[in-house]
Amino acid sequence: VLTHSFPTRRSSDLAPRGRRAAQAIGRHLAAKAAWDRGFEGEGVVVAIIDDPADVTHPDLAPNWAGKAYDPVTDTTYTSASGWLNFIQGLNAPADLYHGTYVASTVSAPRDGQGIAGLAPKTKFLPVAIFQPDYVGDFYVARGIVWAVNNGAQVLNNSWGGLGYGQLVKEAFDYALANGVVVVASAGNSYKDEVRTPAGYPGIIASAAADGNRNKTDFSTYGRHISSAAPGLDVLLANPTWLGGGYGLISGTSFSGPYTAAAAALVIGFIFVMDDAGWREAFKLPWLSWTALGVTL
Is-catalytic flag, 253? Predict the structure, then answer.
């Protein structure tokens, strides 16, 4: 059984606003030094392979890439109203929230309002593989290929389970062969085990850490894990069809997109830097580079 990778949800409309939210992310992820030098993921597209993210939420609308995909009907939506009509047609609004949380982890803008994602100038592409149930390996593979062919440079996968799906693996191999970074949440099994897609070769598997940078008790762990990021009591955007606002959430579902966002910062940095920019970048504290997965 394939499921989203998060065990708990505690709703809250008490979001820290604007500067305070950005400061919280910058402090826990050592991102502020990078942000202050302009490294915010500009020009990078991150695919959110999940249930359908809310492209109209105030913390997501500015950074929607302008396309969203239903792999079951092979339909690309290019208007927010069309995407919302699709979501409403699934007749399960109470079960569709996870993708919105995940997208805001990555791409919520740093605009002085609401919350900020770790890569606040990235654009996100929603791919609906939970509607609300898992749509099946064929359609997931179709969604992965669509994301790659529509410009995604990073794929976030906050879902997984036990077992092995050859078709899905081949789709991820296609992404990797095209230079796309693929991140997957490790899972919330409380034990050492390999879940997929996190265990597929070439995929960055992300475990959940608490505020003290220790592994959370619920996070799956093992030798295949190559990254850890915040996954305990993370404040994220709640879909407008569930009242909007924000929720306080836990799970590797959110350590994964923080890892994907860190990859987007590095990709954006590589794309835009000239020689002067490289010299400036290397003034960043060593800890900031470590948090972004870069070894000097």
Answer: yes
